[in-house]
Design goal:
four-stranded antiparallel sheet
């Protein structure tokens, strides 16, 4: 497993932008698929975006397509989530997660970072 630490959350007005970062420990980070998930109060956790180990394949939830961009820098063991045109409904705790080549699901999780979008 890898250890994950998110940063970059905060309070922003609707229409604004934030960039979340997730720093990972371990020398095998480049082999892991990475994902960003979020959980709003009273709601289930949902996937926001994922990226393959090579960065060639990405996935976005319909609700964020065209506004959010996931990327990774394997040299820095870091994955990013650029969030533009934020909406109040994007308010949630955002989690970074990693899936190793031998896992069928994301098995390593960060502690989460709060994103609050005011209207």
């Amino acid at each position: 497993q890898v250890q994950l630490v998110e940063s970059g959350g905060g309070l922003v007005q609707a229409g604004g932008s934030l960039r979340l970062s997730c720093a990972a420990s371990g020398r095998t980070f480049s082999r892991y698929a990475m994902g960003w998930f979020r959980q709003a109060p009273g709601k289930e956790r949902e996937v926001v975006a994922t990226i393959s180990w090579s960065a060639l394949t990405t996935y976005y939830a319909d609700s964020v397509k065209g506004r959010f961009t996931i990327s990774r820098d394997n040299a820095k063991n870091t994955v990013y989530l650029q969030m533009n045109n934020l909406k109040p409904e994007d308010t949630a705790v955002y989690y970074c997660a990693a899936r190793s080549p031998v896992e069928s699901d994301f098995g390593s999780w960060g502690q989460g970072t709060q994103v609050t979008v005011s209207s």
